[in-house]
């Protein structure tokens, strides 16, 4: 079994060979989970010296939109190849200036069982208008935890990498 790092490196390497050289500044950022590969590249920001924040935000949005439209057919072609190779869906994103836009992202259903106290939390969020449904409320909770627990989650992911390394060096069982 290959580690997640090997998978990311293999995908990033394939993309380096497959993507047009003039699309992105530097190498792409690749994030992989069970269902999806997210590819994020950096494009040059427009010159926005001596402009208001509103004009700068509009210029960045325009640059991202132009890139997205002009590369759509090639991105779809590359995504299909990668989906065939990996068995995962492919999402794209752009970094431009201090802005990050992700598009064509997968929303995977997740089934969970919750006891009454947890359901009451979700129902409170729905009743307060924070979310339209329990499903949306649960997604909101996950985003909030991810935002507020970044360091802890990074430490946990690093620990999982070490577990994977130890497993890889352990004894193997005969088939």
UniProtKB/TrEMBL annotation:
It comes from the Bacteria. This is Uncharacterized protein.
């Amino acid at each position: 079994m290959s580690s997640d790092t090997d998978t990311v490196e293999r995908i990033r390497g394939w993309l380096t060979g497959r993507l047009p050289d003039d699309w992105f500044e530097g190498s792409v950022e690749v994030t992989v989970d069970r269902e999806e590969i997210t590819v994020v590249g950096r494009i040059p920001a427009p010159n926005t010296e001596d402009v208001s924040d509103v004009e700068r935000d509009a210029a960045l949005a325009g640059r991202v939109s132009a890139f997205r439209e002009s590369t759509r057919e090639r991105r779809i072609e590359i995504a299909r190849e990668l989906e065939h190779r990996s068995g995962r869906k492919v999402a794209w994103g752009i970094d431009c200036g201090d802005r990050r836009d992700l598009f064509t992202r997968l929303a995977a259903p997740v089934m969970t069982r919750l006891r009454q106290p947890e359901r009451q939390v979700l129902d409170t969020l729905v009743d307060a208008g924070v979310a339209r449904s329990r499903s949306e409320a649960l997604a909101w909770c996950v985003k909030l935890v991810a935002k507020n627990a970044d360091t802890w989650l990074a430490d946990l992911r690093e620990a999982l990498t070490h577990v994977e390394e130890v497993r890889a060096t352990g004894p193997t069982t005969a088939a």
